[in-house]
Description:
Structural class of chain A: mainly beta
Number of strands of chain B: 11
Structural class of chain B: mainly beta
Order of helices and strands of chain B: EEEEEEEEEEE
Distance between the termini of chain A: 41 Å
Largest interface: A-B, 23 and 23 residues
Oligomer: heterodimer
Shape of chain B: globular
Radius of gyration of chain A: 14 Å
Number of strands of chain A: 12
Shape of chain A: globular
Strand content of chain B: over 45%
Strand content of chain A: over 45%
Amino acid sequence: AQSVSQHNHHVILSEAASLELGCNYSYGGTVNLFWYVQYPGQHLQLLLKYFSGDPLVKGIKGFEAEFIKSKFSFNLRKPSVQWSDTAEYFCAVRSFSGYSTLTFGKGTMLLVSP
Amino acid sequence: KAGVTQTPRYLIKTRGQQVTLSCSPISGHRSVSWYQQTPGQGLQFLFEYFSETQRNKGNFPGRFSGRQFSNSRSEMNVSTLELGDSALYLCASSSGLAGAHYEQYFGPGTRLTVT
């Protein structure tokens, strides 16, 4: 069974700091990769996704992620965080075979102090 | 397009009771997946329905069940509620087509509290 590991459970940053959240997955075949964000009191929203092609994908609100196949990683980055980025971030993987399901990491809570 | 809707948004039940949660997917989407979200376990997959058929099932006891109707709306049922069933239950919809790249869109969830 596939698994997803997010390296940090909690991250605290000051505004304007750079952000990198780690995500590693275990499945060896073709995968679809996602980062979702859950702002306080709101529902899960898709930040960005990787299906194929350019391994550097850009999402909403200035976020980007890089897929490194050899490392089974899909790290999320943002060059300069804002207070409004305070939220929980989830990495998710779906193996691209048959009727596969989405597997989520445990999430990383990001707190940005003004 | 309207997003995924879930009803009710909040629910309080007592142990031993049963509960039914409802989800309406985005128009045109044929797949509905259900997840349980708790602080300790994160997001755990419950089951997925596609065109009224259960296509995948997570590792949950048989007290958790679901179904999908011909209009793609889905319900999940939990019988004999336990305190540990207290969670946010999320529904997600997608095109769900096998062999296709697609993303899931999530609803706001139903917050279930079991006392």
